[in-house]
């Protein structure tokens, strides 16, 4: 369970006026993603703003919900993290998400770290940072106020 030796930044996009705060795991509890189940709600973020945009586009099937804003999340030096080792988990990237869900559930329950660093499916060279809000280190993570996302209309075809 290494600790980050530098300040890390990540991004999350959501509706600040929606049913759930942008920095919240409730959506992941109600609608589990690749890495969690209903009993392991985590906050999905992306290491880069552009990856957060791409992830949002993929998960909304190019029909963007209204009022999308981003937050910049700061993970200070000393926050614990774990990196998912893809080579140790063949098949992790298949449509069947069992490998990822099982890994994420165990990571969450054991509170091995506050952050789990995983590859982005649509952008394999990029990374997503999953935050375990139940981990004691997560209290040290901060974020900015939401700011509007400006979507380029060319992202939606012609």
Helix content range: 10-25%
Low-confidence region ranges: none
Broad shape: globular
Q: Helical region count?
A: 3
Secondary-structure blueprint:
Elements lengths: L7 E7 L11 H5 L12 E4 L2 H11 L9 E7 L5 E3 L14 H13 L4 E5 L7 E5 L10 E2 L3 E2 L10
Parallel strand pairs: 4-5
Antiparallel strand pairs: 1-3, 2-6, 3-7, 3-8, 5-6
Describe, in plain words, how this protein is organized in 3D:
- Helices cover 18% and strands 22% of the residues.
- It is of the alpha+beta class and 158 residues long.
- It has one domain (8-152).
- The mean pLDDT is 92.
Keywords:
alpha+beta; 158 residues; single chain; four-stranded antiparallel beta sheet; globular; four-stranded mixed beta sheet
Offer a concise description of the structure.
The chain is α+β, with helices and mostly antiparallel strands. The chain has one domain (8-152). The protein has helices at 26-30, 49-59, 98-110; strands at 8-14, 43-46, 69-75, 81-83, 115-119, 127-131, 142-143, 147-148.
């Amino acid at each position: 369970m290494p600790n980050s030796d530098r300040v890390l930044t990540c991004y999350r996009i959501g509706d600040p006026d929606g049913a759930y705060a942008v920095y919240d795991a409730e959506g992941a509890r109600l609608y589990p993603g690749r890495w969690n189940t209903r009993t392991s709600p985590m906050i999905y973020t992306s290491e880069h703003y552009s990856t957060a945009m791409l992830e949002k586009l993929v998960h909304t099937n190019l029909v963007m919900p209204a009022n999308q804003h981003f937050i910049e999340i700061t993970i200070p030096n000393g926050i614990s993290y774990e990196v998912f080792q893809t080579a140790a988990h063949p098949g992790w990237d298949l449509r069947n998400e069992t490998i990822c869900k099982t890994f994420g559930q165990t990571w969450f329950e054991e509170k091995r770290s506050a952050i789990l660093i995983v590859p982005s499916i649509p952008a394999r060279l990029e990374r997503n940072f999953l935050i375990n809000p139940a981990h004691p280190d997560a209290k040290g993570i901060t974020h900015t106020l939401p700011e509007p996302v400006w979507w380029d209309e060319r992202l939606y075809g012609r």
